[in-house]
Amino acid sequence: MDKRFGLGIVGAGMGAKPHALALQALRDSVEVRGAYRRDSAKRDAFCAEYGFPAAESYAAMLADPEIEAILVVTPPNARADIVAAAAQAGKHVLMEKPVERSTAAAERIVAHAEAAGITLGVVFQHRFRAASMALGERIASGAFGKLQVVHLVVPWWRPQLGYYDQPGRGTLAQDGGGVLITQAIHSLDLMLSLAGPVADVTALAATTGLHQMETEDFVSAGLSFANGAVGGLMATTANYPGGPESLTLNFDRASATLAAGTLTVRWMDGRTEEVGEPSQGGGGADPMAFPFDWHKAQIADFAAAVREGRQPASTGASALRVHRLIDAIMASARSGTRVSVAAERG
């Protein structure tokens, strides 16, 4: 049997739960050799709950020759130094979204990883839903024809009490933004991976009276894609009690809708196909109310990519595309004008 993939975890807050459950399920192929959080009591409680060894320090994990990669599950304002230290130690990195609070900071992290020659993966687990992968395969086959229209809706709910009242939540200093970079970023990344890059946007953003927060909880935008398709999006955390996000792609010969983990294809000739099973997506008051299977698939892909010397499905470079799209949407909302999405660099 091949040697298990050695992994260390940094960060053990709310966002670490699906990762921990996924790693328990992957124990035959992935070995968690340490988990670290500055709050020692919460670190020890996390390790006891999931059966992981506690690391005394981040430096101790980086010094472990059996650890091949670090899973970073901290808020985005704590990422740069963590990734820099991992890169210096020659450890690969799989990190939670977003890469950082601003695109400029995210670009620095990606460039640092590339210069160090380490693999940098970013967690966008919606790509790993069975329905998402099935749609990607059908699009690649060319059976649908040309993409014409894209429609994305993220009608989520987050309460003020217990969520936005948490220190730093919904602030530029900690999160870098509101509903786009914290919640809808998953759906935006999935949209880009399936529909291709957006060329320009016209947008509106607001903070509704349902929340007291620094950043936006509602965004709508018109989209023009580089391939000629047009589309629109609506994303919010002010839609009580919250519902599943949906992405509909209209092609020459069929329309395809991803909703709640299910793909529905409606062909112009009257046929209908369904793939996947309905599931919760974290659209309600509990942000963690979704299966861990998608995280399991992404962690497995990342470990295999490192071992095989290839890029994982979701990389630091690909994550920059959604950062630049969010920048353009917010710039358009501020200016009230149409804004071009910044082109990829390098």
UniProtKB/TrEMBL annotation:
GFO/IDH/MocA-like oxidoreductase domain sequence ranges: 135-255
Annotated Gfo/Idh/MocA-like oxidoreductase N-terminal domain residues: 6-122
GO MF term list: nucleotide binding
Cited InterPro entries: Gfo/Idh/MocA-like_OxRdtase_N, Gfo/Idh/MocA_Oxidoreductase, GFO_IDH_MocA-like_dom, NAD(P)-bd_dom_sf
SUPFAM superfamilies the UniProt entry points to: Glyceraldehyde-3-phosphate dehydrogenase-like, C-terminal domain, NAD(P)-binding Rossmann-fold domains
Protein name: Oxidoreductase
Phylogenetic placement of the source organism: Bacteria, Pseudomonadati, Pseudomonadota, Alphaproteobacteria, Hyphomicrobiales
